[in-house]
Amino acid sequence: MRQATVYIDREALQYNLNRVKQLAPTAQIVSMVKANAYGHGVKDCLAALGGTDAFGVACLEEALEIRELGYQQPITLIEGVFSEDEMQVVIDNNLECIVHHHQQLDWLRAHKDAYIAKNLKVWVKLNSGMNRLGFKVAEIIEVINALKAEGFTCVLAMHFANADAENHPLNEQQKNQFLHVKEACAPIMASCCNSAAIFKWPELNFDFVRPGIMLYGASPFADQTANDLDLKPVMTFTAAVIALNTIQAGESVGYGSHFVATEEMQLAIVSIGYGDGYPRAFPKQNYVSIQGKTTPVVGRVAMDMIAIDVTGLNTPLGTEVELWGKNRLVDNVAEANGTIGYELLCRLSARPIRK
Ligand SMILES: Cc1ncc(COP(=O)(O)O)c(C=O)c1O
């Protein structure tokens, strides 16, 4: 049987959740479990996130999956509902909506009594410069004050475009706008911190923080790894050695024959490829971890196989190779791939076995 395997370390997830609690001790934690818990498998992750106050998801289907699994914590739909008929499902399942445009406000008001009777909060989204979702400053103050007057309990919500960047000018603008609206609508609950902001701006933790990537033990920052941030990788992605070859100087490896050996070397062929969600294009040299050592991937990644350099390692067939995990951080694989850990974690295919 093919051995490509995804292991989920629930203790690591609990550890990372505790890191959030240390960094934001007074805020409630809305654990972001959208996109199948960032590719980790929502069922396993929920079981390890017992200490969270709430969950955040991107759509109704994701919220309903959590309810079907039996979890009763509040769930926020971070893009709100996409049509009015979803609003009744929201109320029936005790879900909470972001509102970010006027039609959503109309749909909410059409279900006002039931929404309020269930004590569900309305998360009102400020567009402070990211220009994806939300009301601009002047408008949101009116919107929130009207909703409050109608009896809704509101949370002012915002998302940073550059929380991972040092000294980006938009950060100050977004903070200032958020604080201005918060004051103009006082008293009001507030939420603006994702993982990067939780690390950087403890003064902005307010009532609810919304950690995503840090829960899964990967870094939100390009220049810091999970180890630097005292986070533990939750996913370990492995595959097995299925063939061993010795090649001589001048011989090439794999499709396109781009890698040419400069001296005799031992290769291990590992049964992993882009068909499993392992990236094909590596603008920088990529590595795997095997037998406690970090060793280069050589030649192109194919649909089902890669070749790695095991010269001098005495590697038996069947040896497990860590593609990412605690020894080879997904942050570093992402860096070599020219992407972010978020993407690699989310886009594994259905082929690897999950344990
Ligand atoms: C609204 C919102 N809040 C929080 C998060 C979590 O972000 P991160 O994974 O960077 O912590 C996301 C992720 O995209 C988001 O869209």
From TrEMBL:
Pathway: Amino-acid biosynthesis; D-alanine biosynthesis; D-alanine from L-alanine: step 1/1. Its EC number is 5.1.1.1. Its cofactor is pyridoxal 5'-phosphate. InterPro entries: Ala_racemase, Ala_racemase/Decarboxylase_C, Ala_racemase_C, Ala_racemase_N, PLP-binding_barrel. The active site is at K34, Y255. The modification N6-(pyridoxal phosphate)lysine is found at K34. It catalyses: L-alanine = D-alanine. Pfam families: Ala_racemase_C, Ala_racemase_N. GO terms for molecular function: alanine racemase activity; pyridoxal phosphate binding. The keyword Lipid metabolism does not apply. It is an enzyme of class 5 (isomerase). It comes from the Bacteria. GO terms for biological process: D-alanine biosynthetic process. Substrate binds at R132, M303. Signal peptide: none annotated. GO terms for cellular component: cytosol. Keywords: Isomerase, Pyridoxal phosphate. Residues 234-355 form the Alanine racemase C-terminal domain. PANTHER family: ALANINE RACEMASE (PTHR30511), ALANINE RACEMASE, CATABOLIC-RELATED (PTHR30511:SF0). Belongs to the alanine racemase family. Catalyzes the interconversion of L-alanine and D-alanine. May also act on other amino acids. This is Alanine racemase.
